[in-house]
Description:
Largest sheet of chain A: 5 strands, mixed
Helix content of chain B: 40-55%
Radius of gyration of chain B: 18 Å
Family (chain A): Belongs to the complex I 51 kDa subunit family.
Number of strands of chain B: 4
CATH superfamily of the largest domain in chain A: NADH-ubiquinone oxidoreductase 51kDa subunit
InterPro entries (chain A): NADH-UbQ_OxRdtase_51kDa_CS (IPR001949), Nuo51_FMN-bd (IPR011538), Nuo51_FMN-bd_sf (IPR037225), Nuop51_4Fe4S-bd (IPR019575), Nuop51_4Fe4S-bd_sf (IPR037207), Soluble_ligand-bd (IPR019554)
Number of helices of chain A: 17
Structural class of chain A: alpha/beta
Number of helices of chain B: 7
CATH superfamily of the largest domain in chain B: Glutaredoxin
Strand content of chain B: 5-15%
GO molecular function, one term (chain A): metal ion binding
Strand order of the largest sheet of chain B: 2-1-3-4
Cofactor (chain A): [4Fe-4S] cluster; FMN
Oligomer: heterodimer
Distance between the termini of chain B: 27 Å
CATH class of the largest domain in chain A: Alpha Beta
CATH class of the largest domain in chain B: Alpha Beta
Domain NADH-ubiquinone oxidoreductase 51kDa subunit iron-sulphur binding (chain A): 333-378
CATH topology of the largest domain in chain A: Rossmann fold
Amino acid sequence: MTPASERPLTAMIDPAAGPPDCAAYERHGGWQATRRALGRLAPAEIIDMVTRSKLRGRGGAGFGTGQKWSFVPKESATERQKYLIANADEMEPGTFKDRWLLEGNPLQLIEGMILAAYAVQAGHGIIFLRGEYHLACTRLHRAIGEARQLGWLGENILGSGFGLDIHVHSSAGRYICGEETALLTALEGRRPTPRSKPPFPQTGGLWGAPSVVNNVETLCNLPHIITNGPEWFAGLGLGEDGGTKIYGVSGRVARPGAWELPIGTPLRQIIEERAGGMRPGYQLRALLPGGASTAFLDAAALDVAMDYGSVEKAGSRLGTGMAIILDDRTCPIGMIRNLEHFFAQESCGWCTPCRDGLPWVERLLDAIEDGTGQDEDMDQLARHARMLGAPGRTFCAHAPGAMAPLASGLKLFAADFAAHIRQRRCPQQSGA
Amino acid sequence: MLTAEAPLPAPVRAEILALAAQEPHPRGAGVAALRLVQAHFGWVSTAHLREVAALLGMSADDLDGIATCFNLLFRRPVGRHVIMLCDSVTCWIMGREPLCAHLWLTLGIRPGETTADNAITLLPTVCIGHCDHAPAMLVDNALHGNVTTATLDHLIDTLGHTP
């Protein structure tokens, strides 16, 4: 048996060689978990193992994976129609981790889906892939075809009586589809509007059937948890959480990129050691730790451990774990304007506060950045941050996510906002 | 020659019906069917939208509500090549605005417009997951990173556009 890797998710990824085929995947430790699980472990045992591994969702919300599965009705896959859906609609600005996994080792995702589907007894698998990921799409189709041919997908896998097939849904570009109920609505051929909960997807999801939606990175962890055990996986993390995490850094750092590291690795280590620190001539001013919908942290917060609890305690969210750096030569108001343009454009338009509030925020920021802002605009921005930022005032988490960088930015960059209004222009040449 | 006003060719209609048959309800194939039409014609005309809607048992307006809400489904004709320049946060920080300005100077088109010779359409796109190589863009289906004005000039040449 191959010794357990300390970076299990990316151990088999070699961009020069391309993704492994079924045989190479097996040579490097793949399919062991499927052999161990199917027909030998009860679905409830898998759910228990994943719960004990302390795996939490890697898509942004961070819900316990074992707990998420535990709400699915227990009938077997042959008795009841159920769905397991991989959320590969990676559209959070600043995030490029799932693309690495999808292009680098699609069979790992397929095996993760087999294990998850077996645990919740779902006979139908769907990969909801964002339409812009063309290479990932080609490689997924090829991997699914080979897995089908060799009997890893289809009816009665390994003679266990359990069957699963996987279908790739290529979406057509809409951020809101990453929200799990909007994703289900999109799969049903409707405008991707989020749904009211309850019913939760686990009991009433796709076409009314029990459904589980898990992020790509979450699913890719499962083969390693089953092969090496939940205690091994829990021990990989440096703090409260289990496993590794794919972290990334983009912006004006020396070496932007993504790295698989123990979950709970300090932010400073990721930025200074992995990303090589700032480029010459630039200072780090602030950052979004986990994508566009997380609150700004300033340079003083760099020693935070990048796990769910620690980042929350520091006033933000781990999110996708992919940090975006604001340097000292980029205008923070310009950056927030760019973020709010994105959120305003990607609002599904279903509920009024989000549909009308986000464009209003964008116009106020336009005015301030362009030198026509007024003091009252600051009160209006603060009011929006307060009204849209609290959960429960909009239909889904889109507007609260949009307000995270705004609310934190209003505090952190108060002097910059004031200077824009006072000087009637942007004091910094931005985005150049 | 395939045109957007002629009826859908029989094999495309058959493929749409096959997609619909795989779904618990035919409308589940809506996005896939529209993508298929676009792959053949470059965009989705109103005539084709009506045909697809009829095949899926939907009203044309219902299907148009889906077609118009997705960024990658084009309800207007586009050029032979589509440049999608990322306008999200990391690419903005790394200088996508000067690139957009360069395309305006070189090609005379702004986002949403097509060159007069119908060679190139320029569209904005949200983050395409290539932030470690920002600024990034998609040219048709190909991903390009660390884009500079020199990259753009070379690209414009290879796409067969004469300014």
